[in-house]
Structure formats: structure tokens, C-alpha cells
Amino acid sequence: QKEVEQDPGPLSVPEGAIVSLNCTYSNSAFQYFMWYRQYSRKGPELLMYTYSSGNKEDGRFTAQVDKSSKYISLFIRDSQPSDSATYLCAMSANAGGTSYGKLTFGQGTILTVHP
Amino acid sequence: NAGVTQTPKFQVLKTGQSMTLQCAQDMNHNSMYWYRQDPGMGLRLIYYSASEGTTDKGEVPNGYNVSRLNKREFSLRLESAAPSQTSVYFCASSDHSGARTDTQYFGPGTRLTVL
């Protein structure tokens, strides 16, 4: 069983829809949670960063973390064709000091928003 | 700032050939990483360098070697390429001196095909 599981999709939605992307994980030591967005033939770029449980909002994007259920979500409101990309969740158990921030990634979900 | 740069962008090798993928970052980051990305597998860590002068194996190190040439540069070498190493390779860097210590910044990738 992978440490981080993510439904690879693909997911196809109409413009304006609310999109929900999810990851589950098994390592209870994870405490830093990230969502990366990757456009076709490009490198991943950080979209959202959250620490521990709770919600974080940034414009049309909301990240939720439920550590008790080992479940994280990314919501996209009023989705746009420009949101079409692969979304990867990533997690880390440590940070800071001399320790390096090893990330464990999900498989990525391919999202297409059609006009 | 260019961020993270990778060369070459594309490469085709024959089985048994060797090559070195180059990566450089201009963000003065301490840590650098090499990943491979295969369909349905997400990003898998090959090697990382927590700081200049140190390197360690990641999840899938077999068939690869790395060199942290200086703080800016981190190269990945395939000594005897195999078709199983056909993949997209990403280099990333991160800094552990700030609050968002696990944020990794990715290069544009190298698309490698081994025939």
C-alpha cells in the first residue's frame, strides 16, 4: 500500500463547476501538506501549503486537512479552463533546522475544465 | 532569477549508453532533489542532497548516481541506460531557513527515452 493515495482520474468538469480533489495517507507523522499544480510538459508548482489540520483559502482555492481521518482535500470554486492541469498532493513529516524536507507525493489527478 | 534550470530538455539514448542530466538553481537553496515521473506513479525521489557535500538515496536510486558539484549544481548520471529508465526527470530545490521549509521548486524537466 502506498503511503499516499490519490485518485488519478481523469476528471472532466464544465466551466464554473466546483472541483474536489482528495488524497488519503497512512503515515500519522505527516504534518505539512501541499498541493502542486502541473501543466502539461511543465514542472510542478506549489499551489497551496497547510500545516496540521484545518482549512486554508486562497482565492478560488481551499485546502482542507483532517488529520484524524488522514484525509486532505483541495476545492476549486468557479473552475476555469485555465485550471486544466494535473494536481499532485504532497506531504512531509519534518521541516526546519538541518533536516531536509522529504516530500511524499500522490499519483496526481488529471483535471480538465471544458468551456 | 531563472529559478531551477535543467539540461537537456529532451534526450534519446540507446540501451547501455551513459549520460548526465544537469541541474542548477539560483535561489541559494541548501537542498536539491532528483525525481522521476512516470504515468500513474506520481513523483518518485531518486536521490537528494540536504546540503552541499552530502547526498543520500531516495526511493528509487538503482541505476543512478549523483554529484552535488557546489551549492548551485546537482547532477544525475545514468551509467548504463536501460529502457526502464525512460521517464521524465525533474530536479527541485528547497530552503530550510524560512517558515515554509518544505516548499520545493521544480525545474522544467528532462524527457528521456531509452531505446
Task: Describe the overall structure.
The complex is a heterodimer of chains A (115) and B (115). Chain A is mainly beta and 115 residues long. Chain A is globular. Chain A has strands spanning 4-6, 11-14, 19-25, 32-38, 45-51, 54-58, 61-66, 71-76, 85-92, 104-105, 109-114. In chain A, the strands form 2 sheets. In chain A, strands 2, 4, 5, 9, 10 and 11 form a 6-stranded mixed beta sheet that branches. A 5-stranded antiparallel beta sheet of chain A has the order 1-3-8-7-6, with no helix packed on it. Chain B is an all-beta fold and 115 residues long. Chain B contains no helices and 11 strands. Chain B has strands at 4-7, 10-13, 19-25, 31-38, 42-49, 56-57, 64-68, 74-78, 87-94, 104-106, 110-114. In chain B, the strands form 2 sheets. In chain B, strands 2, 4, 5, 6, 9, 10 and 11 form a 7-stranded mixed beta sheet that branches. A 4-stranded antiparallel beta sheet of chain B has the order 1-3-8-7, with no helix packed on it. Chain B is globular and about 40 Å long. The termini of chain B are far apart. Chain A binds chain B through residues 4, 6, 8, 32, 34, 36, 41-46, 49, 88, 90, 92, 95-103, 105-108, and chain B through 4, 31, 40-45, 48, 50-51, 58, 90, 92, 94, 96, 100-109.
Give me some keywords for this one.
heterodimer, A: 115 residues, mainly beta, 6-stranded mixed sheet, 5-stranded antiparallel sheet, 53% strand, B: 115 residues, 7-stranded mixed sheet, 4-stranded antiparallel sheet, 51% strand
List the helices and strands and how they pair.
The complex is a heterodimer of chains A (115) and B (115).
Chain A: E1 4-6, E2 11-14, E3 19-25, E4 32-38, E5 45-51, E6 54-58, E7 61-66, E8 71-76, E9 85-92, E10 104-105, E11 109-114
Parallel strand pairs in A: 2-11
Antiparallel strand pairs in A: 1-3, 3-8, 4-5, 4-9, 6-7, 7-8, 9-10, 9-11
Chain B: E1 4-7, E2 10-13, E3 19-25, E4 31-38, E5 42-49, E6 56-57, E7 64-68, E8 74-78, E9 87-94, E10 104-106, E11 110-114
